[in-house]
């Protein structure tokens, strides 16, 4: 058997399996009840016509019996067949929430109907009335077909696990047609329409939209939770054709401009099919949420402080062991207690000793969420905190890329000292929804008890408020 014959056999088997599956999905009992109902109602119609003819011929009893028989057949269909067919009919489409919008083409079409209606009323021309009825029937047919297109379709939007602000991500939009025989055409997946109040909120200056909560024990203000109300799906996804009993998928690129929690309360399934007179949108409730991490892309501030952080870290970790590593020329950043005087006398130039490190590079990254409020408007405080969040995310990602050992602390949130790969996403999840804390609850005083750990501190506190012991074991970046 050659390749062509094998291909034909496989195609025949595929067609046969498709026909078999379609046959199994057909409700033959329902179709049989429908056929019996049609035949019975046709017989009732014939009996009613015969009764009318018999009445005109003067056969009163024959006309009465025919009319009663037609009524009996119609009643039998109404009380036996109609309930059975109704039980097999899905009425879920009645619960669909639909939004309607007349398109530009629809406005032109309605204007034409108005003109023809006025002409028909003024002239009494039967041809104009027939044309008017056809135009009105077109609107009715358009509404019925678009309702059928939107019904029986299930939608889903899958998002990636990790999402960063200002970084494009690919989401997967999927539509599934549950209708047994009817396809759907020209479907568009859109986000919920933005209300007027939401538009005013989005047009306001950027900042952390937060809710203020009162602490029952201390009476002080707790951290404000950062909750964004922006939609997830902002660009429409078009599906030209959706066959019955099949799924269609499309990749859609999404970009989230800010960190925070994005919610999609509802997703719209939209169509203008078949004539484009009316844009009908079926609203589907959704509880989808997306946690967007702050951007980890290096900024200018990150490039400015990274060499300083690296230098401070090297100075802190170098020479903390006891085994001699090497002897080299003295540099201005070296401590005088590491000078090897014998080697210096022998070479005629200052030489210093370097010792082997006792452990891996360990860093404690601290974001001081307490922002002083003296003389600062709310927008300024939020901008300062956003700068700290961006620097914290970039630094944490940098230490993750170089496989460092990292710990993070901010307010009441704290991670243990561990390889950065194990806690990086825990840190980013916290930074995604972090908000400024109370101005009098700085974490700087708690860091004094950690003299053996190198600390990178991002704070908005005044320089004079820094404990003196932190300067020798930390790199401090003032956010203002």
Q: How would you describe this structure in keywords?
A:
480 residues; alpha+beta; Immunoglobulin-like; 4 domains; 6-stranded mixed beta sheet
Protein architecture, described:
- Helices cover 41% and strands 24% of the residues.
- Strand 15 and strand 16 form a beta hairpin.
- The chain is α+β, with helices and mostly antiparallel strands and 480 residues long.
- The longest helix is centred in the first third of the chain and has 29 residues.
- The chain has four domains: 85 residues; 105 residues, Immunoglobulins (Immunoglobulin-like, Sandwich), CATH 2.60.40; 139 residues, no CATH class; 35 residues, no CATH class.
- Strands 1, 3, 5, 8, 10 and 11 form a six-stranded mixed sheet that branches.
- About 9% of the residues have low confidence.
- Helix 2 runs antiparallel to helix 3, helix 4 runs antiparallel to helix 5 and helix 9 runs antiparallel to helix 10.
- It contains ten helices and 19 strands.
């Amino acid at each position: 058997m050659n390749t062509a014959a094998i291909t034909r056999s496989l195609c025949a088997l595929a067609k046969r399996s498709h026909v078999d599956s379609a046959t199994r999905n057909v409700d033959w009992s329902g179709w049989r009840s429908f056929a019996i109902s049609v035949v019975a109602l046709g017989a009732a119609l014939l009996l009613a016509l015969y009764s009318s003819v018999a009445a005109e011929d003067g056969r009163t009893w024959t006309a009465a019996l025919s009319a009663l028989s037609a009524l009996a057949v119609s009643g039998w269909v109404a009380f036996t067949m109609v309930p059975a067919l109704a039980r097999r009919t899905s009425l879920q489409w009645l619960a669909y929430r639909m939004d309607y919008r007349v398109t530009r083409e629809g406005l032109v079409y309605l204007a034409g109907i108005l003109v023809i209606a006025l002409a028909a009323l003024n002239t009494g021309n039967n041809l104009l009335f027939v044309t008017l009825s056809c135009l009105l029937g077109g609107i009715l047919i358009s509404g019925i077909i678009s309702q059928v297109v939107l019904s029986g379709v299930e939608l889903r939007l899958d998002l990636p696990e990790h999402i960063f602000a200002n970084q494009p991500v690919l989401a997967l939009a999927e539509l599934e047609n549950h209708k047994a025989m009817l396809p759907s055409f020209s479907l568009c997946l859109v986000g919920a329409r933005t209300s007027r109040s939401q538009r005013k909120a989005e047009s306001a200056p950027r900042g952390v939209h937060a809710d203020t909560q009162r602490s029952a024990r201390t009476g002080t203000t707790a951290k404000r939770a950062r909750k964004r109300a922006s939609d997830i799906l902002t660009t429409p996804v078009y599906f030209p054709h959706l066959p019955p009993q099949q799924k269609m998928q499309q990749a859609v690129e999404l970009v989230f401009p800010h960190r925070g929690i994005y919610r999609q309360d509802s997703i719209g399934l939209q169509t203008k099919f078949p004539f484009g007179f009316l844009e009908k949108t079926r609203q589907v409730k959704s509880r989808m949420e997306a946690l967007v991490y702050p951007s980890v892309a290096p900024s200018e501030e990150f490039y400015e402080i990274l060499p300083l952080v690296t230098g401070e870290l090297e100075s802190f970790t170098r020479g903390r062991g006891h085994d001699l590593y090497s002897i080299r020329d003295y540099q201005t950043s070296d401590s005088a207690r590491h000078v090897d005087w014998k080697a210096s006398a022998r070479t005629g130039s200052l030489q210093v000793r370097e010792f082997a490190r006792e452990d891996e590079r360990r860093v404690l990254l601290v974001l001081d969420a307490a922002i002083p409020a003296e003389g600062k408007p709310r927008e300024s405080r939020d901008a300062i905190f956003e700068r700290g969040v961006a620097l914290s995310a970039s630094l944490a990602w940098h230490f993750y890329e170089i496989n460092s050992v990292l710990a993070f602390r901010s307010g009441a949130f704290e991670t243990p000292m561990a390889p950065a790969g194990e806690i990086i996403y825990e840190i980013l999840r916290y930074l995604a929804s972090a908000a400024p804390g109370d101005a009098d609850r700085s974490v700087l005083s708690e860091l004094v008890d950690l003299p053996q750990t190198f600390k990178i501190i991002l704070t908005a506190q005044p320089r004079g408020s820094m404990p003196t012991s932190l300067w020798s074991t930390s790199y401090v970046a003032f956010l203002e």
